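Running co-folding for beta-L-fructofuranose.
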Amino acid sequence: MTRFAAVDLGASSGRVMVGDESLRLTEVHRFSNGAAVRDGALRWDVRRIFREILYGLQQAGPVDSIGVDSWGVDYGLLGEDGGLLREPVCYRDGRTAETRALALQRLGAAGLYEASGLQPHPINTVFQLMADDLTGAATMLLIPDLIAYWLTGERGAEITNASTTGLLDVHTRTWSESLTSALNIPSRILPPLRHPGTPIGPLNPVCSPEPAGPFPAWKAEVVAVASHDTASAVAAAPATNESFAYISCGTWSLVGVELREPVLSEASRTGNFTNEVGLGGTTRYLRNVMGLWLLQECLAAWGSPDLPGLLEAAARAPRLRSLVDAADPAFLAPGGMPGRIAAACRDTGQPEPSTPPETVRCILESLALAHRAAVQDATRLSGHRVEVVHLLGGGARNRLLCQLTADACGLPVVAGPAEATALGNVMVQARTAGVAGDLRALVAATQRLETFHAQDTSGWAEAQAALDDAKAKGGKP
Ligand code: LFR
């Protein structure tokens, strides 16, 4: 039996899983993750993450290969000596407000979209690099590439994640010289691109920031997977044909369709759709929706109350009473989320949720509404047919959210796998090890899935129209 280790890093937790050719997955280590303010910025403790990964690999024991995926856009800078210059800054840090405006001014919103295919989201790497001090920087490595470098000593940029930077040419899928030169980003810091399924190198502690002790003593190849977590999750959608939309639902909800070609129309740009690279060279045509971040932040503010009880109470709370725009970057920054949600309701002339269950109801319905809008817009803007929605990732465990999403979309929602990202990671390793056949069909056959049929579809269109109207009149989200 071949054993694969999937290192899967999320913004709120990371895990090391072991999988095999039949896509049986076992979690061997899970750890919490989160950004914290240090040295004047919101940062990731990436060395601690690396220590947790090494511990997880110890727990895994000898494996044949290792793949690493994580959230997109964030990076570490290596100095000339190969050491990390500073702790990576988190995309939720507010440092990009001015640089984003500057890039839009230099290239125009249409020019930027035509070149990169991305919505000009404040989180994009390009705006972060423009805000960064690049003095002494030799190489920019995205988070999974940084981990792979520490595991092997090899530098590169895996393409699905490179496509979240805003520096990849959407047509040629190579680093864009015109973007780097127009935005004064030294192209020498961008490492060579690599594709999922490419061997990166054998385990080698030569560049590890940790002492040799915790480093695996066994031999294994580190393989490039679809290292953007969303690309791995979409790869593991248990789709039986092409007519599906996906919601990769965790800290974010990434909602869209899988296409053969990017969509770069003006309507697509103003509709805030992004064209990222998927496994097998597909286009992940999607919109970023805030996702369970809204809930996670409220739970933190309430001192981590009993979630199942809260969800039960939310299920009984009044329907479609107050809704916010869950795709609005106004919710990006951490802190004070219950108050910010209440304020957004007030600013749009709706009752303020006044208890935690009411706030949870507001969040989940707002997410369902944003899922609906993104599925409908993706369908309209791409012409792609959608018969079913695959809700992938941790959000698949939230049955109320799944049902509300089915109701709002008026479509069946197939929920699961909850561990889609790690599965997608294992799938690429299995393929690289020679496993043939339709791996999506294997996911459908082997993983626990639940279908939610649309039940109460009334009121959602009106709710969307009312929210659009209130926002147009100047109300905040
Ligand atoms: C999901 C995700 C999204 C990306 C956001 C920031 O975890 O990777 O796809 O837009 O995080 O990196």
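Result summary
Residues 71-73, 91, 123, 228-230, 250-252, 254, 288 surround beta-L-fructofuranose (CB under 6 Å).
The radius of gyration is 21 Å.
Job closed.
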